[in-house]
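Q: I'm building a small set of examples for a reading group on sequence design. Run inverse folding on the following structure and report the sequence directly after it, with nothing in between.
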């Protein structure tokens, strides 16, 4: 199980890094060539628990990029399939980015998974924001934190492109905007907010307002 722990730790880190890269539009922290990764792909946990790991089932990510990839003797776990899908998505995005330089052209070649993952992230945060608001004024700091997180996620030009044409995300952004506007009024009215905190709120309000009012 110690070997299994190491394998799952690496691939959990890999998956989180890839998703963060997709959502925020930044380069992944694990920036080595995917074909160079030699950590075995994870098998179903039950196989490790039962010490039922077979040599013919051990698979590697680099085989996904071979002309005729070899398949394991037994089926992959859903987690392993997701890892392979993320790897292919990353490679496709790199190819598109190299061939098409502008944000508009890049959007045309973007895989739908980019939009799906980003939309899921924004909608999940908006749901958390609604839940926090339902608990009353006592959760105001949490509400501001979640709303600020939503604003920060749409700051990059790439992510701003991802939210276009999505009315659902637009409604999520409007709700986050209303929370931040209310917080700004409280800071100004009570005069308890520092210039730094007020500036941060103003910047996020400006970001959300710009994205919401852009061409959808």
């Amino acid at each position: 199980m110690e070997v299994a722990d190491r394998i799952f730790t690496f691939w959990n880190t890999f998956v989180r890094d890839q998703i963060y890269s997709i959502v925020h539009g930044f380069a992944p922290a694990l920036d080595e060539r995917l074909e160079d990764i030699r950590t075995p792909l994870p098998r179903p946990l039950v196989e490790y628990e039962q010490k039922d790991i077979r040599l013919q089932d051990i698979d590697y990510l680099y085989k996904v990029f071979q002309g005729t990839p070899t398949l394991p003797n037994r089926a992959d776990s859903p987690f392993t399939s997701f890892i392979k899908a993320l790897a292919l998505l990353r490679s496709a995005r790199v190819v598109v980015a190299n061939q098409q330089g502008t944000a508009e052209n890049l959007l045309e070649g973007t895989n739908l998974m980019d939009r799906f993952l980003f939309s899921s992230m924004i909608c999940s945060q908006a749901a958390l924001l609604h839940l926090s608001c339902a608990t009353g004024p006592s959760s105001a700091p949490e509400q501001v934190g979640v709303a600020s997180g939503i604003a920060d996620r749409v700051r990059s030009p790439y992510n701003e492109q991802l939210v276009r044409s999505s009315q659902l995300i637009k409604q999520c952004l409007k709700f986050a905007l209303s929370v931040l506007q209310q917080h700004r009024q409280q800071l100004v009215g009570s005069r308890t907010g520092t210039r730094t905190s007020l500036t941060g709120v103003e910047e996020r309000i400006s970001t959300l307002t710009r994205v919401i009012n852009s061409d959808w």
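Confidence is low (pLDDT under 50) at residues 101-110.
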